[in-house]
């Protein structure tokens, strides 16, 4: 028996009729010769011979009677690949915009709780003889930062598919009996008072960061810091540059079930050239690009706030063993996006400062703090809270304007059944709490693949955002010609009119 962790359960409980937490990857396959494309049966055969390498993709949920406790994972006796792997065909001409529209519709469909929580779609009919594979997985199974790893298991690093021995994992989970589950639930309930008290003490100092929208959160957090100085090592007067209060924006509000997706690729060489010339990191540059496009979008919609945006960047901390067990080790770093800074060089410097300060500021907060607090709540109560404004306390994301993610993907080309994968574009999720738009980037080969998903009602023009990413990169590239040398983010000598350090 393997019970879901509290954080995994929260990903399930957070889902509503308008919010789905599954994440995915859109893999575009290079052009093939006429009649030499991938068929859905080819894909099913390939997956059928390799899915045993990723045990979590065989698991399905088993709920505890009356919902008294967290569900369990059990191995599926039969995996219906005809259900999990399907195909769709675009009508002509098969442009990238049509592909993105198809993915928008597929991403807007919830995953069935009665089956293993993943689906895969082969998309035919793209221009130039291309195809695409869209794979979506629930984060309760595999989080977004490792979904690419699971996808890579079904791909190869050479045109010739490798031979994979067909051997089931040694670790298989059998269906749990009702009496056994109820017994475990009774034991967990007996420990509830002590767990709730301890988790509340650890959580209280972080209330301002986790629930800024709740009345009295700042006061409670300040009192908790003074009462528990050993838990919270930062002064109550510590500046909050790493965790700004989210301003109002057009993409923050109740989301609908309708999605809009767009994608693009940036030359990774240009990103690295900016990083090298200006002395920053790839994370700094990617986050600055996102800041610039959001600034321009808000200006175009006459909605630029006077303060920085509050964003969150997911960081997974898990070992190989934890990956195999589908056990989350997820942290979210609150960062400030200086959209109110007009100068691109200063904007990049402020992004660097925010990214540097975020992990230092939250060093005292355990990576599993939110998960541990959720574990102390009865399952029924968590389900109720997840549908109220108090869900900010137990959801895996704090109240922010949006989530931005950047992950390092494969540096070498990947192949599916001998066909080269020309792009891997992340497809994330949006919610009322985490914002109506999410920007996710993943390096692949010599390019940076970016996927942007949004609530269609809040951000209908998401393709404008992807187009501005290229302009934002050109802007930073121009900065490298205006700055002779920066070391460690500190300006040594400037050529143009940047009269003060950023």
Note poorly predicted spans.
211-221, 227-242, 318-327, 363-368, 384-398, 484-502
User: Main sheet, how many strands, which sense, barrel?
Assistant: 6 strands, mixed
Q: Given the helix and strand composition, which structural class is it?
A: alpha+beta
In spatial order, strands of the major sheet run: 5-6-7-2-13-12
Question: If you had to describe this structure to a student in words, what would you say it looks like?
Answer:
This protein has 502 residues and is an alpha+beta fold. Helix content is 34%, strand content 21%. It contains 16 helices and 17 strands. The chain has helices spanning 6-13, 40-48, 81-84, 96-107, 144-153, 178-190, 192-203, 207-210, 217-227, 268-278, 282-300, 320-324, 344-361, 369-375, 379-385, 462-482; strands at residues 2-3, 23-29, 59-62, 72-75, 85-89, 118-124, 131-137, 259-267, 309-316, 330-337, 402-407, 414-416, 419-427, 437-444, 447-455, 483-487, 490-494. The protein has a six-stranded mixed sheet with strand order 5-6-7-2-13-12, with helices on both faces. α7 (192-203) packs antiparallel against α14, α11 (282-300) packs across α13 and α11 packs across α16. 46% of the residues are buried. The model is unreliable at 211-221, 227-242, 318-327, 363-368, 384-398 and 484-502 (pLDDT under 50).
């Amino acid at each position: 028996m393997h019970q879901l962790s509290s954080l995994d359960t929260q990903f399930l409980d957070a889902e509503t009729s308008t919010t789905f937490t599954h994440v995915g990857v859109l893999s575009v396959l290079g052009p093939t010769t006429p009649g030499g494309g991938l068929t859905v049966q080819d894909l099913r055969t390939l997956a059928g011979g390799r899915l045993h390498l990723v045990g979590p993709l065989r698991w399905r949920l088993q709920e505890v009677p009356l919902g008294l406790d967290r569900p369990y994972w059990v191995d599926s006796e039969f995996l219906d690949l005809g259900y999990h792997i399907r195909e769709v065909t675009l009508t002509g001409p098969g442009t990238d915009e049509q592909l993105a529209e198809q993915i928008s519709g597929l991403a807007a469909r919830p995953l069935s709780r009665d089956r293993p929580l993943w689906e895969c779609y082969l998309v035919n009919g793209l221009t130039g003889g291309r195809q695409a594979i869209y794979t979506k997985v629930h984060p309760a199974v595999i989080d977004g930062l490792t979904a690419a790893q699971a996808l890579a298991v079904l791909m190869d690093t050479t045109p010739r598919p490798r031979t994979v021995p067909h051997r089931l994992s040694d670790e298989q989970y059998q269906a749990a009996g009702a009496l056994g589950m109820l017994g475990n639930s009774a034991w967990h309930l007996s420990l509830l008072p002590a767990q709730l008290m301890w988790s509340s003490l650890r959580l209280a100092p972080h209330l301002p960061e986790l629930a800024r929208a709740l009345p009295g959160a700042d006061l409670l957090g300040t009192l908790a810091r003074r009462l528990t100085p050993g838990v919270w090592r930062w002064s109550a007067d510590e500046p909050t540059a790493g965790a700004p209060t989210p301003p109002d924006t057009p993409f923050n509000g109740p989301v609908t079930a309708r999605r809009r997706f767009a994608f693009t690729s940036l030359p990774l060489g240009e990103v690295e050239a900016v990083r090298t010339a200006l002395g920053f990191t790839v994370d700094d540059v990617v986050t600055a690009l996102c800041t610039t496009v959001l600034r321009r979008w808000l200006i175009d919609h006459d909605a630029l706030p006077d303060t920085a945006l509050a964003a969150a960047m997911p960081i997974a901390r898990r070992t190989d063993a934890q990956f195999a067990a589908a056990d989350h080790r997820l942290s979210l770093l609150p960062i400030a996006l200086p959209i109110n800074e007009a100068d691109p060089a200063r904007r990049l410097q402020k992004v660097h400062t925010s990214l540097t300060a975020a992990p230092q500021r939250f060093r005292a907060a355990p990576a599993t703090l939110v998960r541990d607090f959720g574990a102390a709540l009865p399952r029924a109560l968590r389900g109720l809270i997840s549908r109220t404004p108090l869900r900010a306390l137990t959801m895996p994301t704090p109240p922010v304007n949006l989530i931005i993610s950047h992950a390092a993907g494969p540096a070498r080309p990947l192949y599916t059944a001998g066909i080269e994968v020309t792009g891997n574009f992340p497809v994330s999720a949006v919610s009322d709490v985490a914002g109506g738009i999410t920007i996710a980037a993943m390096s692949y080969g010599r390019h940076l693949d970016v996927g942007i998903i949004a609530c269609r009602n809040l951000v209908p023009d998401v393709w404008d955002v992807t187009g501005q990413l290229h302009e934002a990169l050109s802007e930073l590239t121009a900065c490298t010609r205006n700055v002779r040398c920066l070391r460690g983010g500190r300006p040594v000598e400037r050529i143009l009119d940047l009269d003060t350090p950023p």
